[in-house]
Amino acid sequence: MVRVSRAALRQITAVAGAAAEHRTAARDRHGRVPSAENALVRHGLDAEPIVSRAATRLRAAVIASAGRRRVVLATPWPDGKRWAAAFTHDLDVVAYWPLFTLLRLAELARKGQLGRWGRTLGSALAATGRDPVGQGIRTLLETERQHGVLSTWFVLCGTPTLATMRAGDLTYRPESPAAAAIVRSLVERGCEIGLHGSFATSDRPDLFREQRARLERLAGRPVAGVRQHFLRIRPGATHHAMLAAGLRYDATAGFPDRNGFRLGVADVIPAWDAGGERPIGLEEVPLCWMDRALSKYRGVEDPERWVAAGLALARACRDVEGLWVGVWHPNLTAPLGFPGAPAAFDELVRGVTGDAPFVGTLGAVVRWRVARRSVRIRRVAPDGRLEAYTALPAPAPLALEDAAGRTLEPVQA
Ligand SMILES: [Zn+2]
Predict the structure, then answer these.
(1) What is the whole-number distance in angstroms between the Cα of residue 127 and the centre of ligand 1?
(2) Distance from the CA of 196 to the center of ligand 1, in angstroms?
(3) Structural domains present in the chain
(4) Which of 128, 197, 265, 266 could form a disulfide with 201 if both were Cys (CB 3.0 to 4.6 A apart)?
(5) If you measure from the C-alpha of residue 51 to the centroid of ligand 1, how many angstroms do you get, rounded to a whole number?
(6) pTM score > 0.85 for this model?
């Protein structure tokens, strides 16, 4: 027998359900719950996926308690992989790229980054009259192709106004020739397209349905996932609105200003309604690393250091057989103010994929984990074999394995 106390379960729910963030009324200047309100940040535990660690401890306790008896587990990830990684991109910049360069030049000057300032200016002048946004995306996709990565892209889908432009919210029209060409190239490549919810969606929940439909028309395929621009979310309320618009998963749960595990998990978990104390039917796929978390908010401008932090978190995810989700903005190129960033992205992809994770789109990892959660045993055959099945379809065959990770029976779909 393995016992878990009710107090421990309450703690786990509070952490993975972000209970403290649901309770607080504090907001930062972008209308977000500040990272400092998160219970893990308060206790200095945000760099560890502590709920996922607790799960591995539970597994170890079950195996120890079984002694010589057989313990059977579900394989963690497709293709015999022991952990997983997903590369995601928020498409924030399409039109008016020189404006973004000017803003970034001002930021670099303010920070005294004169070397980067000079290199940016040189690259921007050389790119004048060309298409540095499209070129940056082509380079990024080529890096991913070389390493067998299929990524997930979140695309803004509203109509920009002067006010949204000034706020750094909507700055391009998704149906404009440039944006439509980008979406087309991503779809052709096999990438997943998700909705990047604009600022207004967190105040006007009905907008999710409108923006999702608009994006589906543009992409020509269903849109299942969403991540909020600037990670701007109202805990609980925004999740209900996403669900009502027919979205299946949210990928917003991460820190804008630091890397780490906002919900304590390196995994896909059910979104939690802290008020009603129940799951609401939406899946949550937290991100643990974002390119500009260290640059925009911590003054670290060396892309190599961003990557080192990303790789350290990938090791933490691997240790718990979990999921690493990273965000890389495709506008991080030399003409837009980030010399050296594309090479750093190459290093990140090389480093993460070098550790043999399952690499998939967020839609694929969500479908896998939800199907895996639904594994049940129909009966034990007379010869001791387990007849296992999934109630929900999995994107790849599931199997059972023993405590040492040796594959046993397949799971029937
Ligand atoms: Zn964004």
Answers:
(1) 23
(2) 7
(3) 6-78+372-410 (no CATH), 80-365 (3.20.20.370)
(4) 197
(5) 28
(6) yes
| Ligand 1 centroid to residue 169 C-alpha, Å | 8
**Span from the CA of 41 to the centroid of ligand 1 (angstroms):** 23
How far the first Cα of the chain sits from its last, in Å, is: 30
Beta strands in 65-216 (DSSP E): 72-74, 84-91, 152-156, 192-197
Buried b (16+ CB within 10 A) or exposed e, 357-367: bbbbbbbbbbb
Angle at CA of residue 140, ends 137 and 146, nearest 5°: 140
What is the CA(173)–ligand 1 centre distance, in A? 14
Closest by alpha carbon to 272, among 299, 247, 239?
239
Q: Which of 188, 89, 143, 115 is nearest to 348 (CA)?
A: 143
| Tokens 């008016």 -> residue | 96
Q: What separation in Å is there between the alpha carbon of 228 and the centre of ligand 1?
A: 7
How is residue 214 written in tokens?
A: 């608009």
What are phi and psi for residue 74, nearest 5 degrees?
A: -90, 140
Q: How far is the CA of 90 from the centre of ligand 1 (A)?
A: 5
Q: Do the bridges between strand 289-290 and strand 323-327 make them parallel or antiparallel, or are there none, so unpaired?
A: parallel
pLDDT single digits (tens) 223-260: 999 999 999 999 888 999 999 999 999 999 999 999 99
How far apart are the CA of 87 and the centre of ligand 1, in A? 15
Q: Please give the distance of CA 281 from its chain centroid, rounded to a whole number.
A: 18
pLDDT digits (tens, 9 = 90+) for 59-104: 999 999 999 999 999 999 999 999 999 999 999 999 888 888 999 9
Q: Cα(155) to centroid of ligand 1, in Å?
A: 8
Place of tokens 């004169």: 114
